[in-house]
Amino acid sequence: MYRSVTNRRSFIKKMAMLSAMTAAASMFPGIVFASEQEKNIPEDANLDWKKGPCRFCGVGCGILVGTENGKAVAVKGDPQSSVNKGLLCVKGYHQIMCIQSKDRLTHALVKRNGRYVKTPLSEALDIVADKMKSTIDTHGKDAVAMYTSGQSTIPEGYVASKFMKGAIGTNNLDCNARLCMASAVAGFLTTFGADEPMGCYEDIDHADYFVTWGNNMAEMHPVLFSRMLEQKATRGAKIIDFATRTTRSSTASDKSILFEPQTDLAVANAICYEIIKNNWVNTSFVEKHCNFSKGITNMGYGLEDNYTFADKPEPIDFEAYKEFLKDYSPEKVSKYSKVSVKDIKYLAAIYGDPNKKVVSYWCMGMNQHTRGTWINNLVYNIHLLTGKISQPGNGPFSLTGQPSACGTAREVGTFTHKLPKGVVTNEKSRRLAAKIWKVPYERIPPKPTYHATEMFRAVDRGDIKFIWTQATNPLVSLPKTSRYRPGMQKDSCFVVVSDVFPTPTSDVADVILPAAWHIEKSGLYGNSERRTQHWDKMVEAPGEATEDAWMFIEVARRMGYGDLFPYSKENHVEEIYNEYRQFHEGPKHGMAPLEVLKKESGVIWPYVNGKSTQWRFNSTYDPACSNGEDFHFYGKPDGKAVIWQRPFEEAPEKPDQEYPFWLNTGRVVEHWHTGSMTRRIPVLHQAMPHAYVEFHPEDAKSYGIRNGDQVKVSSKRGSCVLPASINERGLPTKGQVFVPFFDENMLINDVTLDAFCPISKEPDYKKCAVKVEKV
Question: Name one GO biological process term (predicted).
Answer without folding.
Answer: cellular respiration
